Amino acid sequence: MSAKRARLYDVFALLTVMIIIALDQWTKSLVIGNLSIGSEVPFPLVGHNLVLEYTRNNGAAFSIFQGSVVLALLIGIAIIVVATLYLRILNSGSLLFKLVFGLIIGGAFGNLIDRLVRGGYVVDFVSFRIPEIGYKFAIFNVADTFISVGVFLLLVIVLFGGWGHKSTSAREADTVSNSSAMAQQENMSEKQA
Description:
alpha+beta, 4-stranded antiparallel β-sheet, 5 helices
């Protein structure tokens, strides 16, 4: 893959990050402006199963580690891991990898902006529930959704697509290169003999 194409893919990843941050912050501002925090009557999106319910989350995605000191450490480790993985594909990664990292990074920055601007908490507002059986999933936001989808897609790619595997054309180029190197080595051996 050419460096020019890889840079173009980096631009697409950056656009993905910016769109996700804008969408996340826009939806959060709509929720803050139109819903009361902790309202007893959530706003229905799809019947009573998918509703809007404004809360403030001091934990990580889906309210895990809420109020925990370990949260800052885990967020720092996650940022380092994602940055390291992205740097590995900076000048060579496929568009799919770059877009998947764009989903994760965009969601992470969306929630990071909340923590910096809102004093340590994140605005959550989407709630999935099945009242008939007493099931209620954690309340989440747009950023959490993109992070989750990105991590899931990354796992699928790594497990089934092979992280770091070269494309067919790159493998063919390596084979040709190795063959010509071996031929040169044989020629040198013949000349020495």
